[in-house]
Amino acid sequence: MENKSIEYKYCCGCGLCSHFVNGNINEQGYYRPSEKSFLTNFDTSICYCNQVGVKTKNGMWGLLEGIYYGYAIDSQIRKKASSGGILTAIACYLLDERIVDQVVQIATSKHDQMKTEVVWNSTSQDVKQCCGSRYTASASLEGLLDNIDTRRKYAVIGKPCDIRVLRAYLEKSKELNSTILYLLTFFCGGTPSTQANDKLLKRMGLKRNTLQSFIYRGNGWPGKTSGVDIEGNIATVEYEESWGKVLGRDIQDICRFCWEGVGEAADISCGDGWYLEDNQPSFEEREGRNVIFARTNKGNKLLMDMQSAHIVQLENITDTKIIEKIQPGQLMRKGSMFSRILAMKLMGKKIPRYSIIKLLPYARSLSFKLNIRMFAGTVKRILKGKIQ
């Protein structure tokens, strides 16, 4: 269905509305609601494009109860994970200690190595099968409200936008707060399309219908992108190439105008805790390490309990300025949003419901020259038709 509303243009594809209206996967691989009744049957204030301007008073990195470097002590989890394995370790701990009954998360599709599906894991062994990043479309919340049993306890792992939407829904449906106990996420740079993944396969000399396995990252840090076909042929490319030259160049519309890359609505969010060389992130292969944001007291206590139980190794980060160097892309994402949104407004384009005034303080984290460059670049892309 063609619809020009903000909610459709900047849909993040989380799938939460699947409880209220039908939906399907579009040609780019993203979940989209498909009924006209969406705009009347679903509270669209919960939609991500209406959430991006909410709760923006907690500094560049959002609300922080604790900041840590860390990694899973289980060496197999740490090696298999995209970075330090913290989210996998958390999910396993929650199940092993019977704090939750199930962890809702994304796994590789059983039918297509380049697609995803939602799984409801009840054992740590099942969780370990989902370890690692998936740089492709996922609807983490599809079917969530249909399958929740209020007599049970859950943790949900999703993209930052998914978690923001679910947090907003829980604030309006408080009866579920005693059922969905933990919201967990990872740092995100955008969701690549099906076409981007096909380009990557072609670049690697692989075919989707003959894939036996595909790993975007892992088995090292940052780890290589690698695929194996049914004949046992192996193809690999460096992570910097797969993301920087292919996947990161074809993402959802909302991803280009999203500043929630570090998961401000979660209880715990994790990203790459890159080591620095000459004040720049180094992508030299090392043992994985996360940077971890505990955003709620509940999330921080969980990490402390896990450290006491020797499940994770944590190191306090006392100076948030170091995060700007470890995660320069996320700093740029939030800092440049004022200039980019201002350009969109002045050019008469629809934008997510940001408040320009609330964005201005973050623009000051970047130089005036860089803000001008981001503004001009956005205008140029609009004039060339690259931004509709």
Automatic annotation (TrEMBL):
Q: Which PANTHER family match?
A: 7-HYDROXYMETHYL CHLOROPHYLL A REDUCTASE, CHLOROPLASTIC (PTHR31332:SF0)
Q: Where does the Coenzyme F420 hydrogenase/dehydrogenase beta subunit C-terminal domain start and stop, copy by copy?
A: 152-319
Q: GO:BP terms for this protein? A: chlorophyll cycle
Protein name (record): F420H2-dehydrogenase
Q: Which organism is it from?
A: Anaeromicropila herbilytica
The Coenzyme F420 hydrogenase/dehydrogenase beta subunit N-terminal domain is annotated at 67-142
Q: Which GO terms describe its molecular function?
A: 7-hydroxymethyl chlorophyll a reductase activity
Q: Which Pfam families match?
A: FrhB_FdhB_C, FrhB_FdhB_N
The family database entries (InterPro entries) matched by this protein are listed as:
Co_F420_Hydgase/DH_bsu_N, FRHB/FDHB/HCAR-like, FrhB_FdhB_C
